[in-house]
Write a structure and sequence with these properties.
The protein has about 375 residues and is of the alpha/beta class. The protein has nine helices and 14 strands.
């Protein structure tokens, strides 16, 4: 199989889908790997490292897309890349279809075999290609939230852990999955008072055994959510419905309950967000204010600030899954890889288009208007 690795062109995206060690492994198994020049520089991998690993460097993204049977990316193809996609080609990346109708329609029109990392699911229900990203996202959400609570950034000026004589900050985490659990560990470790909401009592029982004692676990319902919003200094949205839009749990009117200078970080923004007023933000414009509270729509793209930590665990998770899914995803091959509940990958136009939020405004690029020119 010819595997292609184009350089990511979404704004401020520095990760690379395949590191030199992965190239060496694939070539050793008899496959060819085409890597666009400069694809790994943002993650600390020079072109020479790919040459040493027996990868073939290509001068343009168009050459990679034209020759590759399977294209491996980090982020969804954005508009300049859509003309590069061709019928029957396998594209393996984070797609987040639920949040972008325009992307979904473009993929259906192209006829590619689209396999979304975030919906590949094991029989156990685990999402192996989403988990490593979620671990970093949960931890970094607290780190960045703490920064924007500082007065200089427009926050209330509260320190998460407090000091002797001053109470610590209140952190509310909505969702007890991988993102939520890691956010709770980080916030609790910094000394904050943490409250985590989740719908699953079994999950709450498990978290009670593994999280520190300064994490309170509450069943998620409307009453508990509103009560905790009124107390929170930092709110972290960590809701996931695999392959589907995140439910809008915090409404615009609910923000009036929150303290002035409080901060909201919605990690679920890639799936539409669980905060009604959330929108994707970037490194250039990381936050915006609604009703006196700062919002940050930090999905996977923003968390690229930790490109090194994020691509290494992704590499390990993708290693055993990439070619299996890619080979099985080619037209006529069976069985297909398992996918998440509610939505799978898109292949040849067999997915119904629901009414997701269009995120085209977030698809800004760093290059030419057309990646295949």
């Amino acid at each position: 199989m010819i595997v292609g690795v184009p350089k990511e062109i979404k704004t401020a995206e520095h990760r690379v889908a395949l590191v030199p060690a992965g190239v060496e492994s694939l070539v050793g198994d008899g496959h060819s790997v085409l890597v666009e020049q400069g694809a790994g520089i943002g993650s600390g991998f020079a072109d020479e490292a790919y040459r040493v690993a027996s990868g073939t460097l290509m001068p343009r993204a168009a050459d990679v897309w034209a020759k590759a049977e399977m294209v491996v990316k980090v982020k969804e193809p954005i508009e300049p890349e859509w003309p590069c996609m061709r019928k029957g080609q396998v594209v393996f990346t984070y797609f987040h279809f639920a949040a972008s109708e325009s992307l979904t329609r473009a993929v259906i029109k192209s006829g590619i075999v689209a396999i979304a990392y975030e919906t590949v699911q094991l029989a156990s229900g685990e999402l192996p290609l989403l988990t490593p990203m979620s671990e970093v996202a949960g931890r970094m959400a607290v780190q960045e939230g703490a920064k924007y609570l500082e007065k200089v950034y427009g926050g209330s000026g509260i320190l998460l852990g407090g000091v002797p004589g001053v109470l610590p900050a209140e952190v509310l985490i909505i969702g007890g999955g991988v993102v939520g659990a890691n956010a709770a560990k980080m916030a609790a470790g910094l000394g904050a008072r943490v409250t985590l909401l989740d719908l699953s009592l079994d999950r709450l029982r498990y978290l009670a055994d593994v999280l520190p004692s300064n994490v309170d676990l509450l069943y998620s319902n409307r009453h508990n959510l509103l009560e905790q919003l009124s107390r929170a200094d930092l709110v972290i949205g960590a809701v996931l419905l695999p392959g589907a839009k995140a439910p809008k749990l915090v409404r615009r009117d609910d923000l009036k309950l929150m303290k002035p200078g409080s901060v909201i970080v919605d990690v679920a923004v890639d799936q539409g967000g669980c905060i009604e007023t959330i929108k994707p933000t970037t490194h250039e414009n990381p936050v915006y204010v609604v009703d006196g509270g700062q919002h940050a729509g930090w999905g996977a793209a923003y968390l690229d600030a930790r490109a090194h930590e994020r691509h290494l665990p992704l590499r390990e998770a993708l290693g055993p899954a990439r070619l299996e899914a890619g080979l099985q995803g080619r037209p006529g091959a069976v069985p297909r890889p398992q996918r998440g509940r509610g939505e799978g990958g898109v292949s040849g136009g067999r997915r119904d288009v629901r009414s997701p939020v269009d995120r085209s405004q977030d698809s800004r690029v760093k290059g030419a208007p057309h990646a295949c020119e």
